[in-house]
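Quick one - first record:
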Amino acid sequence: MSAALVTAGCLLVSACGGTPAPGGADRPTSGPRTSAAPAPSKPAPTAALPLPTPGAAGEIPDTTRLAELALQPGETAGVLEDGGSTHSLDEVEGRPLSPAELTAPCTAMWGLLRQRGAHAAVSQTFDTQEPGSPTVNFLSSYPGTDAATVFGQLRTALAGCPSVEEDGRTVTIRYEDLDTAGFPEDTLRIRMTMTDAGSPGPSEVIDRIVTRVGVCITDLGATGTEPYPGISETPVLRQIDRLRAAQGL
């Protein structure tokens, strides 16, 4: 495969996402929530490239299979960066969060976005100057019903972490359910606004769409400075198409 895959390493280089087919974690009807800033853009038709062949029933994609299921060249506005490599979680990176870590919302949020507890995970970077195009794609797989559990834990963590200090910056987190047609029920639009101490305005903004598709979670994100539009939904829908086809959903 020609896709460039790279190791996660900064705020944007964290991953998670979610979607079910029918069913999945129920959405909370009450509780703290902050609406994300950008309004959903109208999805455009996805690229007409071949979708992956379905795997065996109950298959949990490994790193090699996830690399095959990731967006391919021509399926997103950006081009893949050169010189990447497959990101395979090591024993420390992949260990599940402890009960104590899960009860600390901000710690849980970062850990889940960094794919803690995943069976396998890859990341993919894009070189693009087009506003709204994704700059990174994270894709992970989980055994059994763990993907649905992780997505529910992420939702809870986001609700409890409206802001956090990270690397000397204040990070403000806003999110909302993304109900646009074509997206699975477990889909969140997240905006992370980074502000340096003493700065009159944001120094960086990360928009991401996190969605669960069966046993997989995908997290596509774009980064920039204000004013910055929300990430385009088209490449996310194409990634969802690929994951659905591969799992027979």
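second record:
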Amino acid sequence: MRRPRLRGRGRLAFTTTWSLVVVPILVVLGSRSHGTSWVVVVVLLAIVSGAMGLAIGHSWVRTYMADPAPRELLTAAPGLTAAALLLAAPGLAPWALHDLAGEPTRVRVIEVEPVSDSQGEDSGLTHYRIADAATERDLGRLRFGPRTRVPAGAVISVSVIPDGWSPPVATERLEDADALVTAFAVVATVHVLTCAVTTAAWPRKIQS
């Protein structure tokens, strides 16, 4: 009877480590990166997380064989909420990071690159490269630029994360980001609570 118990504890340790250590690190890295490459990576990791959660839940039921349906769902839940958190990372994590640690900075636009659609027409989107207006230090590209296109040489206000951890965001865009920050906080809170409930409900004794 000892061997199944060790396997059960191993599953609990693995689930907890993945959900509360590895996934938050990946989410923070997601707030730093931008572009389609990271989105693809996050989607793949979310699929892996969901599949892993379901696999662990199914094997746990076969080990303990008590009230299988709700136990399977409970054990799979951290993997599923981790998947939701990963999927939310590219779109929501940067807003939360800038809301917590962003510093307003005056910058000069040094390069303006309008984005064309698949038919070569102006899509209305713009890529900006910026530099600190005071020191002329290159700050790279804006992650989210002003709502209205500005010309090269213009001085605008952006939110900058110290040490360049996440690409800058136009300050005016942060004014409407409260709902996005709240949504990210809700997803993260649900994930943490799910992990806590699963840990608390994990059986301490083998069911006969």
